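// run 5 | inverse folding | seed 20
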C-alpha cells in the first residue's frame, strides 16, 4: 500500500547578505587586491554600499577591472575567504528554530556556492564572473545585478514557499540590501552603513553573528 509522504514545510525564512555580513570583507575587493587594482575597486565599492552609486553600474565597473585574472586563482581566493565570527553558529541556530536559511549576494558564485556547503545554507543566489580560456573576461551576469534584485528575489521566495513577512528575517550591511528590508518584519543591520541602519528595526554593531539569535 502506497503512502503519501508530506515533507516538513519550513515555516520561517532568514536571508543573509554575504559580503561583510556572513563573510568578513568584500569578495570583489579581495580579488582586486590580488590583481593589483585593490584601491580603485575599494573606492567604488565604498560609494556603492553607501548608496552613492547605482549598484549595477558600480558592479560592472569593478568586475571590468578583474579582466585577465586566472580563473583558478580567483576560485582559490574565493574558497579561502574569512567568515565573520558566529557564521556557522547563527545558521545552525536559526535552523533549529525552523528557519530556511538563504544567502543573497551581489558578489559571486565562486564564493557563495562553496560557502553554501561550508555553512549548510539551504540556497544561494548571486552573480557569475564570466570566464573564457581559463581567465576572467571582466564581464558579469546573474540573479543579483541590480539594487532591487534582493527585494524581488525575496518576494519570489516568499510567494513560492508561502512564508509571510512576519516570519521573515533579513540581515545585511549595505545599500543593496535595502530592497529586501521591505519584505521582512525583522530587518537587521549588521555592522552596517548608515543608509541601511535608517531602514532597519534591529541594529547590531558587534561583529558577532550569534547576536542575531537574540531576536528570534
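// decoded
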Amino acid at each position: 500500500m502506497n503512502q503519501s509522504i508530506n515533507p516538513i514545510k519550513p515555516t520561517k525564512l532568514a536571508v543573509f547578505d554575504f559580503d561583510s555580513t556572513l563573510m568578513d570583507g568584500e569578495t570583489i575587493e579581495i580579488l582586486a587586491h590580488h590583481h593589483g587594482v585593490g584601491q580603485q575597486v575599494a573606492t567604488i565599492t565604498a560609494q556603492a554600499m553607501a548608496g552613492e552609486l547605482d549598484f549595477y553600474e558600480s558592479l560592472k565597473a569593478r568586475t571590468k577591472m578583474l579582466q585577465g585574472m586566472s580563473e583558478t586563482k580567483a576560485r582559490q581566493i574565493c574558497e579561502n575567504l574569512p567568515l565573520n565570527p558566529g557564521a556557522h553558529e547563527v545558521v545552525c541556530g536559526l535552523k533549529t528554530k525552523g528557519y530556511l536559511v538563504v544567502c543573497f549576494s551581489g558578489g559571486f558564485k565562486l564564493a557563495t556556492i562553496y560557502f553554501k556547503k561550508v555553512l549548510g545554507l539551504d540556497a544561494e543566489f548571486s552573480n557569475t564572473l564570466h570566464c573564457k580560456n581559463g581567465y576572467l573576461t571582466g564581464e558579469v551576469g546573474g540573479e543579483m545585478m541590480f539594487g532591487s534584485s534582493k527585494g524581488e528575489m525575496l518576494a519570489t521566495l516568499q510567494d513560492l514557499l508561502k512564508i509571510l513577512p512576519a516570519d521573515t528575517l533579513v540581515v545585511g550591511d549595505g545599500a543593496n540590501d535595502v530592497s529586501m528590508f521591505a519584505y521582512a518584519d525583522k530587518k537587521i543591520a549588521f555592522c552596517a552603513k548608515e543608509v541601511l541602519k535608517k531602514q532597519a528595526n534591529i541594529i547590531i554593531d558587534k561583529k558577532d553573528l550569534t547576536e542575531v539569535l537574540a531576536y528570534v
